[in-house]
Amino acid sequence: MILLRAPRTxxxxxxxxxxxxxxxxxxxxxxxxxxxxxxIMPPASSVRTSRVAGGLDLHLRIIGRSRYTSDLILTYQFRxxxxxxxxxxxxxIRIYHDARMAEVMAAxxxxxxxxxxxxxxxxxxxxxxxxxxxxxxxxxxxxLTYCLRQGHRFTG
Length: 156
What we know:
This protein is of the alpha+beta class. The chain has a domain at 42-150. Helix content is 27%, strand content 29%. The chain is built from two helices and six strands, in the order αββββββα. The protein has helices at 20-37, 127-150, and strands at residues 47-50, 58-65, 69-79, 85-96, 101-108, 117-118. It has a six-stranded antiparallel beta sheet. Helix 1 (20-37) packs parallel to helix 2. The relative contact order is 0.19. This is DUF1249 domain-containing protein.
């Protein structure tokens, strides 16, 4: 007998958008991709730029380091006609070295107001907040995948 669909077992699928399991899966995937992008964690206050032919410069700033975590900012930078530099997207990411996870702590995207989030100012545990965290971390996953495909790496 050929099954066209897997039987429902009552377990949560790891990729159900907005679910807690999907969010934890994204944290793990983001950690893996960040470590591919940044194999050696630089000291606090370090600033790095990754340049690839035909691509935008990717900017990294380490804003905090401790034994178990590292906080960083990952962004592109655009110079406006008036000389003002705009960072977009501008993601504050926390890496949990012991748990091997990475999560977006704050996301600032100028062109998408609904996407602006600072998760530590809003400690709601409802499904809307969970879905917003999933959505933001899904964006990080896709962006990291894109950057890695372009050949970005932070070395040295």
